[in-house]
Amino acid sequence: MGNEGIGARVLRKEDKRFITGKGRYTDDITERGITHGVFVRSPHAHARITSIDTAKAASMPGVIGIVGGQELIDGGVGNLICGWMIHGKDGSPMKMAAYPAMDPAVVRHVGQPVVLVVAETKAQATDAAGEIEIVYEELPSITQLSKVLEPGAVEVHPETAPGNLICDWQLGDEAATEAAFASAAHVVELELEQNRLVPNAIEPRAAVASYDTGEDHYTLNTTSQNPHVARLVLSAFYNIAPEHKLRVIAPDVGGGFGSKIYIYPEEIVCLFASKKLGVPIKWVAERTESFMSDAHGRDHISKARLALDSDLKFTGLKVDTIANLGAYMSLFSSCVPTYLYATLLSGQYALPNIYANVKLVYSHTVPVDAYRGAGRPEAAFLIERIVEVAARKLGVSPVELRKKNYVRDFPYQTPVLMNYDPSDFITLMDKALAHIDIDGYAARKADSERRGKLRGIGYSSYIEACGIAPSQAVGSLGAGVGLWESAEVRVNPVGTIEVLTGSHSHGQSHETTFAQVVAQRFGLPIENVNIIHGDTDKVQFGMGTYGSRSGPVGLSAISKALDKVEAKAKKLAGHLMEADEKDIVIENGELKVAGTDKKIAWHEMTLGAYTAHNMPEGVEPGLVEKAFFDPINFSFPAGTFICELEVDPGTGVTEIVNFVAVDDFGTIINPMVVEGQVHGGIAQGIGQALLEGCYYDENGQLVTASFMDYCVPRADDLPSFAVDHIEVPTPNNPLGMKGCGEAGAIGAPAAVINALTDALGTEDISMPATPEKVWRAIQATRPAMAAE
Amino acid sequence: MYATNYQRATSLDDAVAKLNAAEDGKFLGGGQTLLATMKQRLAAPSAVVDLTKIPELKGIGVDGGTITIGAATTHAAVAGSKEIAAVLPALTGLAGSIGDPAVRNMGTIGGSLANNDPAADYPAAVMALNATIHTSKGSYSPEEFFTGLFETALDEDEIITKVVFPVPQKAGYEKFRNPASRYALCAVFAALTSDGPRIAVTGSGNEGVFRVSEMESALGSNWSADAVTGVTVSPDQMLSDMHGSAEYRASLVSVLAGRAVKKAG
Amino acid sequence: MSEVTLTVNGREVKRDVEDRTLLVTFLREHLGLTGTHVGCDTSQCGACTVHIDGNAVKSCTVLAAQVDGSSVTTIEGLADGDTLHPMQAAFREHHGLQCGFCTPGMIMMAVEIVKRHPQGLDEKTIRKELEGNICRCTGYHNIVKAIDTAAKTMQGQPAMAAE
Lengths: 788, 265, 163
Known about the structure:
The complex is a heterotrimer. Chain A folds into 3 domains: 195 residues, Alpha-Beta Complex (Aldehyde Oxidoreductase, domain 3), CATH 3.90.1170; 324 residues, Aldehyde Oxidoreductase, domain 4; 146 residues, Aldehyde Oxidoreductase, domain 4 (2-Layer Sandwich). Helices cover 28% and strands 22% of the residues of chain A. Chain A is built from 19 helices and 28 strands. Chain A has a 7-stranded mixed β-sheet. Chain A has a 5-stranded mixed β-sheet with strand order 7-15-14-13-8, sandwiched between helices. By secondary structure, chain B is an alpha+beta fold. Chain B folds into 3 domains: 46 residues, Uridine Diphospho-n-acetylenolpyruvylglucosamine Reductase, domain 2; 112 residues, Uridine Diphospho-n-acetylenolpyruvylglucosamine Reductase, domain 3, CATH 3.30.465; 95 residues, 2-Layer Sandwich (Enolase-like, domain 1). Chain B contains 12 helices and 14 strands. Chain C is 31% helix and 15% strand. By secondary structure, chain C is an alpha+beta fold. The model of chain C has no long low-confidence stretch (mean pLDDT 95). A 5-stranded mixed β-sheet of chain C has the order 2-1-5-3-4, sandwiched between helices. Chain C has 2 domains: 76 residues, Ubiquitin-like (UB roll), CATH 3.10.20; 69 residues, DNA polymerase, domain 1. Chain C contains 5 helices and 5 strands. Classes of the chains: A alpha+beta, B alpha+beta, C alpha+beta.
């Protein structure tokens, strides 16, 4: 066995099935008698449903049944919920309007499901769906965030949330922050937009729902990042079935990025319909449906003010944000622009006074929830943009201004709840500067100018919070769930190991990295370790994968269970070798008595545990241990990104020519996997900065509803990335891991926009900075260049 | 996709007969637009008559100053043609920029021209090179053939058989892609032909592909990028959408024309 | 209905299908070859890429009937028994996949890219050639490296060391 333990660049165990076409995604699953569901969706942003005529469709070939919203109500199906209760600054609870899986009376966004058609083939279901006649009375709609709070604006839920305001929320000390501004030597102001994004995992959402009449039991295969949470919510809130009568399986899942955390109307309706119609039903979203029904991300507008003293130390930050939650409150929508956003506004800086006011609002758009980074990209973008603007306005190097204000002493308590892990922000910046070859930048810029191009460089020093915890603390902030993780380690009689984890891998490589940690503990090859996840019938309750939590929380639970296995293994081995368990060491697949040549093989010990012929007194047979891990704090990955780009003034096209990311993720299990996570995150961050924008027109139509209009990055939009790291382990979990899944998406947008505004010589440019926007900026400042 | 009938034509006559026998038939080339449209239920032909297996619609010939491309020739075949590259690399480059490699393996020149998408590439080459479009009923000059957005002079049962391109003295093609769809947002084909300079623009015109006569006359006396970058076109004749306003597209016409001329050498 | 005969991964198959049946539906639903995926409805993501008579094609935008008589290779037919195709091996070696959903189409396209560039490939060309294949996980960085390596292996040049 080579080095397969912590820190080794081990190739992935899961790859073989994916590269040979043997992955098993939800749409690949079928069963005898499978039928196909197609949803009829609202073409209107806001309308009253006058009538639904299904007669013709019902008589079409292959049609098995048609289910509408009234049947769900009659069947006792509960409304969808937002699972995080926040309170406004006046103490009032957030105003959560009813969110039926299919509302029989009113639709509030384009793409809202209205009717499910089930037929023997998908083509038949689609044919029949086209023949369902729904008469709508169109109503005025509001989709533009900047207008949602205007007096007299159309209201999305007038009875529950007058004026579209869900919650007027705040964090921080307003008076102290105002005082900081009153005594400031410099004040810098900036207005910012966080463009609305569509996650676009390449596997569309899907569900296969079936009901077994003999067992009175449902099974749902679905594209979920957290099957246990799905089962809990389906059971406790949507009244599909008690948990023990519902099995939820998340098989191979083709990317999530947050969008597959939530339990959507489609899964609920398919489960309901599978019992009602007595057939297993498969529903697979088409991409356009994904655009119209997957939870979107971001969508803020903000005003920010930064106060500095005469020594250019930051003394205060005041932020006013309006956050769009769409037409209904999705599962975790309330915490994203509040506790996952305002708590990170201190950035990497010692910033003594911070006050944030966030107004969460409804609009006639697809619900908005967590998308890769969830709140933290918005915070990082705001602080890193305003710091850059401050440096330029005050005539100081953006690097020096950052260094002057970085937190240097840890742990560090911010004025916005967070207590930062140790890290080394100066070294992160210095390493990034070395990678980008900052000394050669002037020459590169001159060369660009000779070629008629504009070159810019931009920095972003982000910090984020992962492994949302501890459960008691998040509970006090309004979370409806605990945010621990569970693990069970089963050592088999022959010594191989199965690990059941509540985490879920949909690209994160858990089958490899988790196995590395297990294998290292006992000196076994990773081939002897299997990671099992994603099935509520196999795995104990777990919380799933989001928020970069699988390492810091999921692996910590495994680590705790391994502690118990190790302790029992030593007890058994000590007994078998007639030695003190304290003297047993485990290495290279053997249990040895320290200081002697006595040893037994790992599999001899494990077989002994199961034959149970010779157990220590009072010790149970077998070798299976469970653990739950509830972290004592968040973990805080941080890093500095530097983007160097070139603009073609004639077309406004921006080309990223160098991109450096240096991160501190604490302990790294597998650098290859971590780098891959960073690459993907950066790509999504660059996408947000330059390419991706989700737009509604004045009639509330989603005009970016396919890849024809919504631009996800292609290979030729991106450069290769230079990725490096430092490792400052967090003391808050056993392995010292901080989490790495979201960092790239959090840090990248500000680096790109800072570089672009540097190239253009403008204070700001809104995201996505499309070629036309860039061209217009050049037209405004340098019209001669824009004509060549 | 609505139900349809697939029919494979073996000859031009067979194709026309099959189309006419159908209630609402359509000719099918590589299908990269038609099938995509049918999948979205935006088109519902009762039959599709596949032209791509008709032998006389295949093939590339380069002879005596002309390039002849059979209508069912794929973009990939044109892009990979060493014969064409030897005399008109701007055309192989154009073909190699259409869609993506998989689309180029199916899509055909005849299908592209018959569809006359305002963002398609081939219309620019046909217009700038003054190519002749031969059909089952006759032949057309570019000006006769392209009649508006998604509109051509073709009858319902008329089939493009081949396109004949005169080889110019010089030619260059410069394309700016819509970042999302990758179709041309604006693209300019510049050619110095035996009849003088010709500049054709695709992707931007609100009536489809068009020529810019002011640029052509400027190039007549001075074949250089500078001659065209100073010539502006009116935004009034430009398309405008979320990916590019009329003003932006108008500016791109001048910028890209300069680059196309420079590429042509 | 049409009778469609194809040679899929070396085996002749014959099925009666509705004329509107797309090749990807034929492969997935009628033959159970679920390695070919569908990620969009506008022929852009490339997850459905297969080879038809050796050429990479988006199987979501081709009727099965249209390619009657052709030879189709899917991701399931790329390896030689237990021996991975060099492109498959390179994707693993360079961590060119995460969730795996775009991977079959990506690999099938990559094999054709190498075939069409016997003179060799550089990074810019690889990125350009991947225009019709979308990956949301990897940022393409490691996909590009994998294709570069596989190209050298397939063309008999020494591959760069895996990082």
